[in-house]
């Protein structure tokens, strides 16, 4: 007998007192099965015990997992990679079994079922050949596609008697319309109707078809517009080429980014470079104003430019590119006039087609705040009001211009004074709507400073007379605007009769006055 057998039999051969077997705290007498040490160290016994435990815990999973991959003798279990792959496969199969149970629980007896095939780890079709692969979606029944191709007979109906079905049948037409949705553009999302018997009426299908065509044309227009027009905070290829040439020539060192957007233009910040000519000094910081090449956001540009005698002969409503270039040229000429008169405004550096480079009002890439965004003390507000009043008089008398869009949005506060910007729409007082634009500017300025608490601020009618030098006496605003329109009409009739606009104004340096 070996050592194990002897050790097992030793306690039985040693008798003890009677109270020792009945003691509740004593060790229980257990009968142990005798086995050899070789049986205990056997791997085959360990595998059998493990399989018994797995079969008791996971009967379905282990049954599905049985095969040469787990129990084969040709697997090298000493490799850590192989063991990791085996464990991962076991986990994936358990996960798939759980998904199948969830599918069965959720679907039940419902006609519309869901599938978790996309979330499964191990797919049922594991073939090495691409020809044998089957898409799980194609295995489901599609009610819109017939199992066999059917043709509608020439007579237009199928069946006899009460079972007759015509080509206008609601069910047949509904399924055909649903199948036709596959012919829509890929961008038009029609959804996934596989597994559902959908029927679209002719009215709904025609509406969807028309909407799909309109969306396709709209996307084409948007794509073309992005290529041929300047979008917000971006430029088209032609504008990019102009900016690249400015940087390559050394005029600009670098363009940092967009600082402002509006209905007519996009403004970028740039650092100035060196100039090719000595008489032209480029400021350290520049503002690049790129006029938008689309008229969608500012369609009434021609109202400000077609009646301006400086551009009247060159105006072409049919060519938007020409209008934009004239618009940029108009701002350059207006800024030059204001700069010569000493009015605080950006300094013009260069104009290239619809790209205008000016001096930057601000410091260290931070633009000067607009007058509507800055909080001023009562003294600074009063100082700003008198400065704007003086600038409006200078603009009208010395520059012979009307801003035509003057408000707190187009005035900057920098270095303790007001700067005027955005003068591309500015016109001369002899413009057919020049006095109307001036009255609108006076209303905006007067309302802003009256709300700001400036007691000395004049109302719009008093400010109009102070700026223009005209003495229009009217008790209310309606009569005041009627007299302005009458003066503009008088000037327009004189232009048509004599071909000149300056005959109704005095020729000296005094402010223009209409003859009543």
Automatic annotation (TrEMBL):
Compartment(s) where it occurs, according to its Swiss-Prot or TrEMBL record: Cytoplasm
Domain (RIO kinase): residue spans on this chain: 224-469
Spans traversing the lipid bilayer: none
Gene Ontology CC terms: cytoplasm
SMART domains listed in its UniProt record: RIO (SM00090)
Cofactor: Mg(2+)
Protein name per Swiss-Prot or TrEMBL: Serine/threonine-protein kinase RIO3
Organism name: Loxia curvirostra
